[in-house]
Every structure is written in structure tokens, then in C-alpha cells.
Amino acid sequence: MGAALGPPPRAHQIKLACLGRDRPGRAGPLRVLCCLSVDDALALGRPEKPGLPSSPVLEPRHIARLSAASALYLSDPEGTCTDVRAGRWASRADHLLAQLQSPEALTLGLTRLLQRIQSQAVGWSPSEGACVDLPQLLEEAARAGAPGSPGPVLAALLDHARSGSCFRALPTPQYFVDFVFREHSGETPNITLAELAALMQRLGVGGVSEPHGDHSEQGHLGKEASQPGPVPPASPNSSSSVWDTMCLSAGDVMAVYGLSEQAGVTPEAWAQLSPALLQQQLSGACSPQPMHPTQDQLSQSERYLYGSLATLLICLCSIFGLLLLACASCSAATHYVIQTFLGMAVGALTGDALLHLTPKVLGLHTHDGEVDLLPTWRLLAVLGGLYAFFLFESLFNLLLPADPEDPKDRPCSHGHSHSGHSHGVSMQLAPSDLRPPKQHEGSRADLVEEESPELLNPEPRRLRPELRLLPYVITLGDAVHNFADGLAVGAAFLSSWKTGLATSLAVFCHEVPHELGDFAALLHAGLSVRRAMLLNLASGLTAFIGLYVALAAGVGEDGETWILAVATGLFLYVALCDMLPAMLNVRDRRPWLLFLLHNAGLLGGWTVLLLLSLYEDNITL
């Protein structure tokens, strides 16, 4: 692949199946497993359209993907052949490019990649000056005008593999000696007494130097030490900063000196090994490094600020909806607004769970160059199947003869079911035992009109025991639910502000109708408007507790992924088990209008989350 860093290669230049085999007399760079074809390589330019015919030219913008895919083949031929047959080669290459974005990840990731390539080598006799190492690859990429970019580095790697070069994943033993002398020797080639004292002080070893009385011996020793002695030979690693900050494990250090892990370190080998340990101590390579947020990630203070603002807005909007519901007169408009929010909540929850959180949990979101959108479209097809059956059931209910017992004459009725699960939201009137006496037909269930102040503090009335317990059950369940929402929002902002925005939008869309349903159920249980709003507000504050627990835990990337996975299940459960049945079971005098509003909310929620999933890389903060 001599043209990896130059113009686009033609089809006859792409020979990936048997790298190095066409050069007689030279050993191939890996155990050859000829499973690739030219069409496989050219298909890397169209991972989202595998059915299109191959083109004889691979465009320059796909060189990075080709280089990454070839590096995967060099490091794991059998696994790559399996990925090629399964159609995963392009997505694996994109995932590798995404993993190598930051400078720290690039150095560590390429080192591990070179180790795997080196383990596949056959017929190599690597000498210190012949094999290609990581500093050389980075230098070649910098000369090509793309320092620190994974694509050109992998292209240079592929170019050397094509020419039959061997690779060195770790530094040579001489590098550690060179590092100590480079860092602690001054103008002279040797380390002076003062420099040695400073070195020992930095290592935290040795005592205070005391003057010696035998000046003749000291002068003799000084004269002897001042004579020129052997100087460590120059090494290509001596000017490199790549390995200066690389933390090596015990196995890596033993591998550098060719020591067997089974045999261990002998006293003779320890003398050779000590410069490596000295270099690791002096360089501070294994010291904890402060995490620098990427462009999408937020600092700790920003996470608390944006997470608190998002949670506060969710709570305030829910309270504002309660105020409107409590102060408005009984009108069909209020009922239809709630139903539209209900449809939007289902769309936002399922859209965020499938289109945004699921790719992030599975590691399918890559943001390097051209994003592979195939997983997004497949997950959109899942929503398409859900929508098709929703339409089928909705139309089935509309076209069947109506049940005469259905309360179709109560467009402003509300209820809250807690019999099957704790948070079933129903915008219908609850059973008759939840209705207060002397309720006028057509009025909102237990919602007090503005001109009836005496109803704000209703007189105590005899309630059944289960009704007296119902407010506490509702409040407790709502508090747990809001705590889980806070955890989801906190984990989302830990990941990135874009994930936090999408999750906050989904939580907001389902919290508004959910809180309205809780509010109506509390009123049905005999509470006054003031007390019902107070309990709703108290349960909403647990969202802040969940938010701060998630942010304070400071979980790593794996922990964030697990929390987002649990949040995905929570969103799907609330949407499909609580809110979707409420949409299907609601009855109204104008069923077709209700059907249209449900569809508008559902499609609107999906559209917003789809656009956010497709174009989130183009949004900047």
C-alpha cells in the first residue's frame, strides 16, 4: 500500500489478502490467511450500502478506514476474516479510529496494536535498527501534515507492512539508560556528583553528603572519574517523547528485556531491569493524570450546573402544568393537550432509548469523519414496527363498535391506576369509588374551579382505608421514579452534554403527563389542591438526589455505560408498559381527533430524537 498517504489507490494496487507473499525471498509480515478480496477493500467506502456494485477507485476520504481495517487484519487475521464474512469489518474499523482520537489513547492504542501485530509475525529477526516503532510512525504522519491523527499513522503502518517491515511495539533496553542520562546529565556525557545527588533526592533515596578528609584519595577518584569513559550510544529513541509518558506493566518490562514470566527475574537480570524501573519513577508515567474533557464532555462543575438546570426545568415545567390544570375550567382543550404530551412522551422515551442510548451502550456511536448510520436506520426500523402495530390496534379500536359502558362523555376525566404497576398513567376517570360525591357531569374529576375557594380546603369526608393510603403509595412510587430519572440525567451528563440534552428532553416529555396523572389521582383520593401540589413537589425533589448521586459517584466510562443501559430499560418500561396502554385505552367523544393528536405527539418525539442522533456531531456548545 505505497499510496496509503498519497493519491487514491486503484483496484490493482489493493492487495490485502496475502501481504508480503508477492515478494519472493522475504518473509511475510504475518501468518497469512487469504480471506480478503479487492471487493472487500473497496466496500469499505460504502459500509452503509453493502449491496451496491464495487467501484474501481477508493476515495481519499476512505483511506483512514481502509488503513484501520487493514491494521485489524494484521493484528488478528482470523477474527477479521470472521468480521468480513459477517459484514462488520467497516464498523470495527470505525470503532478503532474512534478509540484513537485523543493523544493519550493514540499512543496506548497503537502500542497494543503493534504488540498484536508482532505476535502474528513469522520469519522476522528484528534488530534494533531495522524494525519500525511507534515514534517512527508518528514522525512519518507528522511529515505528511497530520500529526496526532490516527488515519495517517495507520496508513504509514500499512505502508511498512506492505513492504515487509517488522514492527517493534516496546522500546529497546538501551532507551531507559538513555532517558536517565538525557534527563540528568548536563554538559558532560556522564552524571556528575551534584546531578547524582539531585537524582537520588528526586527518587527519595540516600542521605546528606558529608565532606571527606582524605583529599588525596578524593582527588585521585575525581581524576579517575573525570577521564572520558564509554558513553551510551545514540539511540533513535533518545529524542522521542512517546515512551517517556507510557506506563509499562511488569509484564511489559519483562518483555523489553526478554525475560520469561515463568522463570522470573534473576539477580543478574535485575541489574539490567533497574534502569526501566528508574525511568518509570522519574518520568512519572504511572502517576494518575488529570482527566481532560473532550469537546463533547463537560467539566465537573459544568456537569453539576447543566444537570441541575435541566432537572430544575423539568420540575418547574411539571409544576406549571399542574397550575394550569388546577386553575383552568373544564375544557376539552386541556384534555387534548395532555393527550398530545402523552404521545410525545412515548415518542421521546422510546426514541431516546433506541436511537440514542442503545448505540452508545453498545459502542456503535463513532464520531470520526463519516459516521456509519446503518445501526441508526436499523433501530429506526424497530420503531417502525412498533408504530405499525400501534396504528393497527388504534384503528382496530376506532372501527369496532363502541362499548356502551365506556365513559365517552367525559373528555376531561382523569384517573391513575396503581393496580398492575405503580405508575400507570390513565387520562380517564378512575373507578367510581375514586370519584368524590356530588360531582357534576362534565367537570374535571376533583379539579377545583378558580371561583370555588371553599373547595381548596374541603371538609373532611369519610374515605375508604385504601383511599386514605393511596396518596402515600402514589407519592412514594413517584419519588422512586423521579430518583431513577435523576440518575439517568446525571449519567447522561457524565457521558457528554449531547447525551444529557437528549435524556433531559425524554425525561421532560414523559414527566409532564406523568405528574398530571399523579396530581389527578391525589385529588381523587380526597386531598386538597394545595396538599396535592405539595406532595408532587416533594416527590419531584428526589430527582435532584438521583442527579447528585450519579454525578458524585464519578463513575468511569464503563460505569456510565451500565447506568445508561439501566436507564434505557427504564425508559422502555415507562413508555411501553405505562404510557402506551394509557394512549390505547383512553376514550373520547372525538376519537379521530384524539388519534391524530396521539400520532402527532408520537411522531414528533421520534423526529426530534432522530435528528439529534443523526446531527449531534454538528451541534456545538
From TrEMBL:
It is found in: Apical cell membrane; Recycling endosome membrane. Its main location: membrane. Residues 211-223, 435-447 have a biased composition (Basic and acidic residues). Residues 35-167 form the Zinc transporter ZIP4 N-terminal domain. Residues 207-240, 407-459 are annotated as: Disordered. It is a multi-pass membrane protein. GO terms for cellular component: apical plasma membrane; recycling endosome membrane. GO terms for biological process: zinc ion transport. Residues 173-285 form the Zinc transporter ZIP4/12 EF-hand domain. It catalyses: Zn(2+)(in) = Zn(2+)(out). One of its GO terms (molecular function) is metal ion transmembrane transporter activity. The chain crosses the membrane at residues 304-325, 337-357, 377-400, 534-555, 561-580, 592-615. Keywords: Cell membrane, Endosome, Ion transport, Membrane, Metal-binding, Signal, Transmembrane, Transmembrane helix, Transport, Ubl conjugation, Zinc, Zinc transport. Belongs to the ZIP transporter (TC 2.A.5) family. Selective transporter that mediates the uptake of Zn(2+). Plays an essential role for dietary zinc uptake from small intestine. The Zn(2+) uniporter activity is regulated by zinc availability. Also exhibits polyspecific binding and transport of Cu(2+), Cd(2+) and possibly Ni(2+) but at higher concentrations. This is Zinc transporter ZIP4. It comes from Sus scrofa. The lineage of its organism: Eukaryota, Metazoa, Chordata, Craniata, Vertebrata.
